[in-house]
Design a protein that fits this description.
Distance between the termini: 47 Å
Oligomer: single chain
Number of helices: 3
């Protein structure tokens, strides 16, 4: 009985040790097939590449309301669409 438990335990450890972990993979979402009820009006969520992590750590306030990322193209889009608040959803 002890040998069987030992074998099962060893197999479990081996499976955990050699399991392939896949972070960041997401299925394709066709935005045109997403129902209107799933859309949060007035909110835009974006995901930045890791190379921009310093920018999110140093968001800049302008006139106490709007924040800037100091990423030229993103800041231009924020201005174009009248973004009034930027909130970081996840930490580093």
């Amino acid at each position: 009985m002890k040998k069987l438990l030992l074998v099962v335990f060893a197999l479990a450890i081996a499976l955990i040790a050699f399991a392939e972990v896949r972070f960041g993979e997401r299925p394709f979402i066709d935005i045109f097939k997403v129902p209107d009820s799933a859309i949060e009006k007035g909110h835009i969520r974006i995901k930045l590449n890791e190379k921009y992590s310093e920018h999110t750590a140093a968001l800049t306030r302008i006139d106490g309301a709007v924040m800037k990322f100091e990423i030229k193209d993103l800041d231009a889009l924020n201005k174009k669409y009248g973004v009034s608040k930027i909130t970081q959803v996840f930490g580093d």
